[in-house]
Amino acid sequence: MPTTITSQPSTQAASQSYPPALMKQAQGLEGLFLNTLTKEMFSSIQTDGPFGGGFGEQTWRGMQAEQMANAIAQNGGIGLAENITRNLLDAQEAAQSQSTNNITGNDSP
């Protein structure tokens, strides 16, 4: 009997605590990164033959790579979106903490 995996990716569960708008932007950045990777993957495919090659195929492959990358990113991705979001929030908290320390005259972190 085949096993069906029905659980959601762990990154999706962890992303619930992040602001949705920020997570969406991070997923977009992850999609852009994955788009670059998939384009490189497709560039190694041989397209010889009577129906291969040409401008149409190059255009189609570019669109295919973009759609695949966005689908991967929106369905849990490879973990970049969550890490990007966490790092952005950490940097924002550090900047706010530094700003508060400067206002109060407290130089300790």
> How would you classify the helix and strand content by structural class?
mainly alpha
Poorly predicted segments: 1-13
Estimated radius of gyration: 21 Å
Q: What is the string of helix and strand elements?
A: HHHH
What does the model show?
The chain is built from 4 helices and no strands. The protein has 109 residues and is an all-alpha fold. Helix 2 packs antiparallel against helix 3 and helix 2 crosses helix 4. The chain is rod-shaped. The N terminus is likely disordered.
Q: Can you tag this structure with a few keywords?
A:
single chain, 109 residues, mainly alpha, 4 helices, 0% strand, rod-shaped, disordered N terminus
A few lines on this structure:
This protein is 69% helix and 0% strand. It is an all-alpha fold and 109 residues long.
Write the layout of secondary structure elements.
Blueprint: H1 10-14, H2 20-43, H3 54-74, H4 80-104
